[in-house]
Amino acid sequence: MSKIIKISKIFLLISLLAFYVCGNLKFDDSFVKITSQTLKKYFSCSTILNQISNVQKRVDCFKICSRQNNCEYLKFNSNNCFLYLSLSFNEPLGDGTFWYKNKKGKIFADCTTTTITTTVAFNYNSVLTTKYSISYLINNGFQKVYDQFYSHRTMSSDLTTARSYCNSNSILCAGGGLVDSDILELVACGNCFQILTETLIDAPNRVGSAYWYMTTGKSFGFSPIFTITQNTADTHDYSDPLRLSWHFDQNAGGWRLGTLTSLDNNIQYKKYILVKN
């Protein structure tokens, strides 16, 4: 009798384990890991990040993406799940943390190095993306309210002026790009009043898809995750292409545009703020 009980318990444990494994591996879509060998045809023309979640396992990130129609790519890194509507091949993709949704019949953008801009319309209340057209923003109702070299010292008066263009429903976008280029190398957007709110050191506010900070005497900018190292500018993770940080109310311009840093005296790149009412 005791042997039968033991066998029954073992069978029950095996059944529970099988149920758990199957439950975690069953998705509406399968996912393919992106490597340095992944062909460019599997990418989009720009990067559009829609959501960031904190999860325990990669399989949980797969589940979330699988259930969302606006998730075509994902990144899982250090318990952070990044969900993307589109992903440019210009991103640093060789670390094995990116995956794409392998849907039958899916048509990829098949972009080349000559088609890195985008005409994709999306919710400007929640935007964090690279390689986005300034003209497309302007054609969709945005106006430039701040347009300066990276060497320019960003002061409280600059952001106060930007805020004066806003009402409670206005969308503000901040970004940077090369001089005389229509492409923003990096841009994020969200509610203007929420973005232009004073924050404590290393305590950004989540607005849309980014974490924003504006600390007088320190810096202004955004990050894809809560963690920042807000010295005179955000020095956390120099390899992160989705961080923007400007010296704020200091005696220097600069400082960061994605992985480009120490732009204090730079006149090859510009800072932009655009507002839409």
Description:
With 277 residues, the chain is α+β, with helices and mostly antiparallel strands. The protein folds into 2 domains: 26-116, Hepatocyte Growth Factor, CATH 3.50.4; 127-276, no CATH class. The chain is 19% helix and 32% strand. The chain has 5 helices and 15 strands. It has helices spanning 2-25, 58-66, 134-139, 156-164, 192-195, and strands spanning 30-33, 47-54, 73-77, 80-86, 98-102, 127-133, 143-149, 171-178, 183-191, 205-207, 210-215, 219-223, 244-247, 255-257, 269-276. The strands form 2 sheets. Strands 1-5-3-4-2-6-9-8-15-7 form a 10-stranded antiparallel beta sheet, sandwiched between helices. β13 (244-247) and β14 form a beta hairpin. The radius of gyration is 22 Å and the shape is globular. It starts with a helix and ends with a strand.
Throw out a few tags for this protein.
alpha+beta; Hepatocyte Growth Factor; ten-stranded antiparallel sheet; five-stranded antiparallel sheet; 2 domains; 277 residues
TL;DR of this structure?
The chain has five helices and 15 strands. By secondary structure, it is α+β, with helices and mostly antiparallel strands. The chain is globular and about 50 Å long.
Please give the structural blueprint.
Elements: H1 2-25, E1 30-33, E2 47-54, H2 58-66, E3 73-77, E4 80-86, E5 98-102, E6 127-133, H3 134-139, E7 143-149, H4 156-164, E8 171-178, E9 183-191, H5 192-195, E10 205-207, E11 210-215, E12 219-223, E13 244-247, E14 255-257, E15 269-276
Antiparallel strand pairs: 1-5, 2-4, 2-6, 3-4, 3-5, 6-9, 7-15, 8-9, 8-15, 10-11, 11-12, 12-13, 13-14
Signal peptide: 1-23
Keywords: Signal
Protein name: Apple domain-containing protein
